[in-house]
Structures are given as C-alpha cells and as structure tokens.
C-alpha cells in the first residue's frame, strides 16, 4: 500500500475528503471517489434502522446519479484492515477491475 507521501495530489485529496467526511459525521467509515471526469464524491456510512449503505456505496451512488461513466480511484477510511467484499463488488461492477481501492485508518494512514 502506498504511503501518503507517495500518492498523487489527486489521491491525497481523496484521503482528505474521506477523513473530513468521517470526522464530521462520526460515522464508521468515510470514503471518497474520483470519476473519469475528475469529479470527486465523498460520503459517510449510512446506518439507519431502515437504510444501511457503506460509505463506498453512497459515493458510487452519487457518482452514478451524476452521470459518471466510471471511476479512477477510491479511498475508504475506517477500522477495517481491507475493503469489504461488497464494497469491492460495487466498485468492480461499476468501474472495472483496475480501479485502485485504497484503505486506511480514521486518521488517513493507508494500510
């Protein structure tokens, strides 16, 4: 996994967005994605009695609803050591196998 200093400026922006979103909401996870046009989407986990969506799921939903045709990169920050199988499936189905999914802790330190 690359260290923060090895990331491109665009990927560091995703880490910052995911971290800020998670901190602002107090959610279990924060995520950010960049679409093929360079637009970014950041979101937190939604955990309501009638609706549960991962942070990555919310980001991909926002990208799809905005007309994005794919993704360039994904960052997810939380307590998990790796991206969940369902998050990877969401990313792969929408954007393909080659999209990097970077995982880190709540402070933005990538694993």
From TrEMBL:
InterPro entries with a match to the protein in the record: Cytidine_deaminase-like
Domain of life from the UniProt record: Bacteria
Protein name: Cytidine deaminase
Organism from which the protein derives: Nocardioides luteus
